[in-house]
Amino acid sequence: MKLTNILIKNSLLASITLLLILTAGCSEILYYGQATKGQLSLLLAQDDIRDLIEDENTPPDLRHRLSYLLQARQFAEEQLSLPTGDAYLDYVSLDRDYVLWNITAAEEFSLSGHQWCYPVVGCQSYRGYFSEKAAKDFARSLHSSGLETWVSGIDAYSTLGWFDDPVLSTFLKRDDTALAALLFHELAHRVLYIDGDTAFNESFATAVEQASVKLWMQARGTPDNYARYQENKNAYRVFVTMILATNQDLKKIYQSDLPVEEKRQQKQNAFADMREKFAQACTTDPTLCRFQGWVNGEMNNAKLITVANYHQHVDAFMRLLTMHADDFSAFFKEAARLGELPEAQRQLALMQLSDEASSDEASSDKSSNDK
User: Fold this and answer.
1) Cα separation, 85 vs 95, whole angstroms
2) Alpha-helix residue ranges (DSSP H) falling in 170-222
3) Residue 14: inside a domain, yes or no?
4) Measuring CA to CA, which residue among 341, 305, 334, 342 is closest to residue 318?
5) CB-based burial label for 264 (10 Å; 0-12, 13-18, 19+)
6) Does residue 325 carry a pLDDT above 90?
């Protein structure tokens, strides 16, 4: 049965690859070739998780982490209406820190990420490589054409249900709570995917992740673990808020009629202002300091986009989930309806939900202070 499944998957992969090659230009064939080779290497290296758990030669820590993931997977299917299919029932041990390296690119005066469009999966504002060197080589070629670029290592990715995604050894760098969060995030991509709107897709998955972890921790009776997770998320939220605020400042600069050189100077001023505000916040809340290297490192539009993609609409989706009383099935249907709207209407609807979330939070804070 295992061999049969692999052959079926390989046949599907070969069919998709042939389609990509037939519809691609010469420059794209090498890209699709490395993508096919990388995906195939994962398919061929899979071990059944249940077999590994039962194998007495499996290291105890690995056995524990895999058992934990199977429990989280069962919870996702039974309690969260997340479509698991046969995903995350196999394990792949990798000899590298990341499974993929993603490239994000943007124009000098734009926070709209460069889009790459592919047959079958549509358009995305990032491009993934199974080789770090290949990713950096491609980034350099983009940079030479005038684009700003950012290359980031990725622990996990979703094939959107085209394949039964495995658990990767790169997942296991996380503690148990963050491990479950990653699983919920990746399963959310199997629920909903909107062609050409990376921020929608990733924000949706992040919202599902955050809401799911809370329920998972409550079900397991481990409030201390959730408290630590929430503390980390609160610090990250402050960091993200600063990034998104900087994005808004930059958009005003980019949309202005200022001369190019003045725009460039104001752009650097915005980065400097962000760093100064972050340094001040870090002295007040030391938990923020773990983002210091990211903030003080190289900064450009592409780097900022990587944060915005995952968090731009999270508040809107959390508000939508609350409106449906944490009924995930109803929430998924309404999120899908939003995704079907024309882009301008979709963005307006998300903005309205985000404003409502901010209003609710302000009212909650006021009530707490009054008490």
Assistant:
1) 27
2) 176-188, 198-220
3) yes
4) 334
5) middle
6) yes
pLDDT bucket at 363, cuts 50 / 70 / 90: low
Cα angle for residues 103, 114, 292 (degrees, 5° grid):
50
Q: Is residue 203 part of a domain?
A: no
Count of C-beta atoms within a 10 Å radius of residue 218:
11
Q: Cα–Cα distance between 217 and 285 in angstroms, integer?
A: 25
Number of compact structural domains in the chain: 2
Tell me how far the alpha carbon of residue 283 is from its chain's centroid: 29
At 370 the pLDDT is 54
Chain centroid to CA 230: 18
Q: How far is CA 148 from CA 110, 222, 304, 360, in A?
A: 10, 44, 11, 37
- For residue 7, the enclosing domain spans 1-44
In sequence order, which residues have a C-beta less than 8 Å from that of residue 288 and are 6 or more positions away?
A: 235, 238, 239, 278, 281, 282
Q: Position of tokens 């079900």?
A: 219
Q: Is residue 8's pLDDT more than 50?
A: no
Asked whether the beta carbons of 162 and 85 are under 8 A apart, the reply is no
This prediction has a pTM of 0.85
Residue at 161 is within a domain: no
Helix (H, G, I), strand (E, B) or coil at 165: coil
> 217 with 223: CB under 8 angstroms?
yes
CB atoms within 10 A of CB 191: 20
Query: pLDDT by residue (tens digit) across 20-46?
Result: 443 444 457 788 888 888 988 998 899
Instruction: Please report whether residue 154 resides in a domain.
Output: no
Write out pLDDT tens, residues 191-249.
Answer: 999 988 989 999 999 999 999 999 999 899 877 877 888 888 888 889 999 999 999 99
Q: Alpha-carbon distance 131 to 129, whole Å? A: 5
**81 Rama sector, left if φ>0, alpha if ψ -120 to 50, beta otherwise:** left
